[in-house]
Amino acid sequence: MRSNADVVIIGGGIIGFAVAFHLAKMKFGQVVLVEKEAMIGEGSTSKAAGGIRAQFAQQVNVEMSMISQKFFKRFKQETGSDAVYDQVGYLFLLQNESDIATFKKSVEMQQAIGLNTKLLEPKEILKIAPHVNVEDIKLGTYCKDDGIADPWEFLLGFEKASRRLGVEIELEAEVTAIEVSAGHISAVQTKKGRIKTPLVVNCVGPYAKKIGQMVGAKVEVEPYKRQIVTTGELDFVKPTFPLIVDVASGLYSHNESKGLLLGWGDKNRGPSFDISVEPEYTDAILEKALHRIPQLESAEIANQWAGLYESTPDHLAIIGWAPEVKGMFHCCGFSGHGVMHSPAAGRITAEMLSGKEPSIDIGRLSPERFAKGELVAETNVI
């Protein structure tokens, strides 16, 4: 194991590898990525639903998505690996007047910065998704450039390109301590050895707070359980099936192996690292799904799993330098949007570590916003 590095990235999920790739591409120096598990992507990346969208309420999230979508479309040219970004579109279904007002305002902002978002009446929704029950739906928003992807394909692409560019990857290397000297990061201690380094990037998702605590840095990230169900093959599911979000209930769905993936988050639950599959959680998902897609009545469950959202109080990511100690950089707290924002997050982090101005204004993602009370929440969170 290397004993010295210019930067150590903690976390072997898609955010960590996106950061590693972009740093290596910029020829930053010796980059080492450490991961506590025996395989990469064992945490939230492997549990993600794979949605990629730019329909957000906050402009910074829209811009992050637009950068990322452009990268995903050029993924093979950028990394050398094949990975499919299936632009089947995202369809948000609205029934409450308050949601309609919020989404209309968001669409105006999205269109103003170049996003191809449309408002749809119920009869127009049925042309895109004829299987959906729209009896209680008043309006929809749709962007055909949004879509779905396999997080694992993109993770492997980032990993292979990072290795090729010289990044050293250490698995089963859980971080046990981070050393600080005169207020500056000086080394990272892992179960496989010690690495001297002046820079650490915190990319451990739901565990970001624990890494921050090692150096006295406050990281406003908590883990929240989400559960997903997939069905067996369904005749009515076509390859053009869009990713559908029922805003009032929180249900989301997209095609998956000739069936459907169904997901939902119980927002009444407190933070927890529990990822056990709960039958009652599955029942709640299916109940919501049957109302919105009645043809699911004959569907069989193929698989189900649970994972963690790494959520912040305002549901915006944390990207920036820790104010408590020099040399600690946070890239975490994506609140369920880590896969879709990974290319932008990796690029912006690499830019900032290199002393460059970030590609977009990310002032709202600063780690210091919580202490200052400068919170403007992202409301379009599933």
Description:
The chain is of the alpha+beta class and 382 residues long. The protein has two domains: 7-49 and 152-221 and 314-372, 3-Layer(bba) Sandwich (FAD/NAD(P)-binding domain), CATH 3.50.50; 87-144 and 222-311, 2-Layer Sandwich (D-Amino Acid Oxidase, Chain A, domain 2). It is 30% helix and 26% strand. It has helices at residues 14-25, 44-47, 59-73, 75-79, 97-112, 122-128, 151-164, 208-213, 279-292, 338-353, 369-372, and strands at 7-10, 31-34, 51-52, 85-86, 90-94, 117-120, 139-143, 147-149, 168-170, 175-181, 184-190, 193-196, 200-202, 222-231, 243-246, 251-256, 259-264, 301-311, 318-321, 328-332. Strand 15 and strand 16 (251-256) form a beta hairpin. The protein is globular, with a radius of gyration of 21 Å. The two termini are 40 Å apart.
Task: Write the topology of this structure.
Elements: E1 7-10, H1 14-25, E2 31-34, H2 44-47, E3 51-52, H3 59-73, H4 75-79, E4 85-86, E5 90-94, H5 97-112, E6 117-120, H6 122-128, E7 139-143, E8 147-149, H7 151-164, E9 168-170, E10 175-181, E11 184-190, E12 193-196, E13 200-202, H8 208-213, E14 222-231, E15 243-246, E16 251-256, E17 259-264, H9 279-292, E18 301-311, E19 318-321, E20 328-332, H10 338-353, H11 369-372
Parallel strand pairs: 1-2, 1-13, 2-9, 5-15, 13-20
Antiparallel strand pairs: 3-8, 4-8, 5-7, 6-7, 10-11, 11-12, 14-17, 14-18, 15-16, 16-17, 19-20
